[in-house]
């Protein structure tokens, strides 16, 4: 492989030769030359971004269907908590492996377009099986459905991230990742707020039906969202193929494909980001999963107030993530934003553990810090990894994150049962310290290589343009 082919996608040069496309050479078939159909125009890219955000909306909406209907499922299906928790573990445990191979398949076998369609089909099929299992009161069929759903769910997120880099690698990548995070939180929030009322409404409309039949019908509503996301995968495949044809992107490719041996050559930055991802997220999601009783016991909140306090991180991040992503695009300094997000979250957990201030205050601040970190961390992968390895790199991060969440969730439950919430909070603080150390190491590694991760989008484009002009003069 030539040195030029090893350049990172968002490094000092493009990953591969630049193919100039004269204005008069571009044929915009079927659109009459309108700005909305011209892939060189910002309007077209932002319309594609809307489709891109809805690509995984159905997956995020359906992921927490069990949480939204927990009491109803326990009663109508006559199951215990252990069987209920399998709905989540059968999703998470397979993804420790599956989303890594999903990313590898996107890079090496399917390509991003076919990969996104296949994983969307798995998500849709899994939700259909899950709903049918409930309709016929067959929990084992529901477990099979969640397993199928999990095969596609995390890998679809990998495909979405790869699409984002492919379309927005030059300017707005942090904002795009923030917006995708926002839509994921919107999907979860919509699910939490409408599934139980929909079940209640269907129960009133069909009073003679068994509860599990009503439950199956309610879960079928999630299938509609999955089908909408599936249509988005087909639309993205069409527009991405059209972009490649119009701008002749195929001519600019190096022909490189990833092999499993290439993983050992990933830069240290990738593995440090995996550590940050695990150490940070295990201090957020498991805490939220166990936080309801914590707010009731320590702070004396009512169940409704405790629920509102527990969900405020997601609500804040839904609105704040795109805004922080936009700021990071303009200012750069991704690693400093990551460090800032970790430090603020560390302070929030310390306040919850050792003070008695109103818990809404640290939880609101944690919502902003979570938005900062997520918007700044995930785009860094595209700055250090070549384009043909992006799916695999994102797959590895998703796999490591799922492993961490699966293990730490179990450990957190055991700590809570045996030691209580104070020790659990100290446990989370230790993990955040690990994330902080890894973030500082990431900064030092990047600084030793020239500090290009902390450049703004404008600075990268300026360096890229200077390099292109130097190449032209040398020819």
From TrEMBL:
Organism: Lingula anatina (Brachiopod)
Name assigned to this protein: Lysosomal dipeptide transporter MFSD1
Gene Ontology molecular function: transmembrane transporter activity
CDD domains: MFS_MFSD1
Catalyzed reactions: L-lysyl-L-alpha-amino acid(out) = L-lysyl-L-alpha-amino acid(in); L-alpha-aminoacyl-L-histidine(out) = L-alpha-aminoacyl-L-histidine(in); L-lysyl-glycine(out) = L-lysyl-glycine(in); L-arginyl-glycine(out) = L-arginyl-glycine(in)
Keyword annotations: Lysosome, Membrane, Transmembrane, Transmembrane helix, Transport
Family: Belongs to the major facilitator superfamily.
Gene3D superfamilies per UniProt: MFS general substrate transporter like domains (1.20.1250.20)
């Amino acid at each position: 492989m030539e040195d030029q082919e090893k350049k990172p996608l968002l490094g000092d040069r493009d990953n591969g030769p630049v193919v100039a496309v004269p204005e008069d050479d571009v044929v915009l078939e079927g659109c009459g030359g309108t700005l909305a159909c011209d892939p060189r125009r910002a309007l077209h890219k932002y319309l594609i971004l809307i489709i891109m955000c809805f690509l995984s909306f159905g997956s995020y909406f359906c992921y927490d269907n069990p949480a939204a209907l927990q009491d109803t499922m326990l009663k109508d299906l006559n199951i215990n908590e252990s069987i209920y928790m399998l709905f989540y573990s059968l999703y998470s445990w397979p993804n420790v492996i599956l989303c890594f191979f999903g990313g590898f398949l996107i890079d090496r076998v399917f390509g991003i377009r076919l990969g996104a369609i296949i994983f969307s089909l798995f998500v849709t099929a899994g939700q259909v099986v899950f709903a049918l299992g409930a309709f016929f009161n067959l929990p084992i069929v529901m477990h099979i459905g969640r397993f199928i759903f999990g095969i596609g769910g995390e890998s679809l997120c990998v495909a979405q991230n790869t699409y984002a880099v492919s379309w927005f690698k030059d300017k707005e990548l942090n904002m795009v990742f923030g917006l995708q995070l926002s839509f994921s939180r919107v999907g979860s929030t919509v699910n939490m707020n409408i599934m139980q009322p929909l079940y209640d409404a269907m129960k009133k409309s069909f009073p003679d039906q068994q509860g599990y039949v009503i439950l199956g019908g309610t879960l079928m509503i999630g299938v509609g969202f999955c089908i909408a996301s599936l249509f988005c995968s087909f639309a993205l495949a069409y527009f991405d193929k059209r972009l490649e044809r119009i701008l002749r992107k195929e001519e600019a490719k190096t022909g490189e494909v990833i092999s499993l041996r290439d993983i050992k050559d990933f830069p240290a930055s990738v593995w440090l980001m995996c550590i940050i991802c695990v150490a940070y997220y295990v201090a957020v999601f498991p805490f939220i999963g166990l936080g309801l009783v914590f707010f009731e016991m320590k702070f004396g909140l009512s169940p409704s107030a405790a629920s509102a306090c527990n969900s405020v991180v997601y609500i804040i991040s839904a609105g704040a993530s795109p805004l922080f992503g936009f700021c990071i695009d303009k200012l750069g300094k991704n690693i400093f934003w990551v460090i800032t997000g970790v430090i603020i979250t560390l302070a929030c957990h310390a306040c919850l553990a050792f003070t008695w201030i109103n818990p809404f205050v640290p939880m609101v601040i944690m919502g902003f810090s979570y938005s900062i970190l997520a918007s700044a961390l995930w785009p860094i992968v595209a700055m250090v990894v070549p384009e043909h390895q992006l799916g695999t790199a994102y797959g590895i991060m998703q796999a490591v994150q799922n492993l961490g969440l699966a293990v730490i969730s179990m450990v957190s439950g055991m700590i809570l049962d045996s030691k209580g919430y104070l020790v659990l909070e100290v446990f989370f603080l230790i993990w955040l310290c690990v994330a902080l150390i890894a973030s500082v190491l990431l900064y030092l590694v990047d600084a030793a290589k020239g500090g290009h991760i902390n450049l703004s989008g404008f600075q990268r484009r300026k360096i890229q343009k200077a390099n292109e002009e130097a190449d032209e003069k040398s020819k």
